[in-house]
Amino acid sequence: MQFNRVSGPVEDLHMWSATSNGFSFVISFETRSGPGLRGRHGYLASWRPIHQSRCAIRVGGSPFKTLVEAEIACTAMLAHLIRPG
Q1: Is 25 within 8 Å of 17 (Cβ atoms)?
Q2: Which of 38, 47, 37, 36 is nearest to 73 (CA)?
Q3: How many Cβ atoms are within 10 Å of 11's Cβ, its own excluded?
Q4: 14: exposed, middle or buried (Cβ count in 10 Å: 0-12, 13-18, 19+)
């Protein structure tokens, strides 16, 4: 799964997204204070089915210390979601 930085009008937002096998994943960087998204300090990962109007679900272990840790957790979640049975 390849994450790409989401670009937008606000430079202080740090977000990455990826899609695979009918699921959408988003990773955002949050801090308790300062610019950007507010929350627990770290990389928050979430997922949802692409073709259903459902809220995003946080990936267990979020927030992560690094972007790489968040990406690995998303890949593991995808493997769990597409596992047969």
Answers
A1: yes
A2: 47
A3: 9
A4: middle
Residues 6+ apart with CB under 8 A from 69: 43, 61
Q: Is the pTM of this model over 0.70?
A: yes
Q: How many residues does the chain have?
A: 85
Residue with tokens 């690995």: 72
- Three-class SS of residue 67? helix
pLDDT score, position 35: 63
The token duo for 71 is 């990406």
Report the number of distinct structural domains present in the chain: 1
Report the candidate in 57, 55, 52 with the shortest Cα–Cα distance to residue 77.
57
Provide the residue range defining the domain that includes 71: 4-82
Nearest to 27 by CA among 79, 73, 83: 73
For 1-50, write each residue's pLDDT tens digit. 899 988 876 667 788 999 999 999 999 988 877 666 667 789 999 999 99
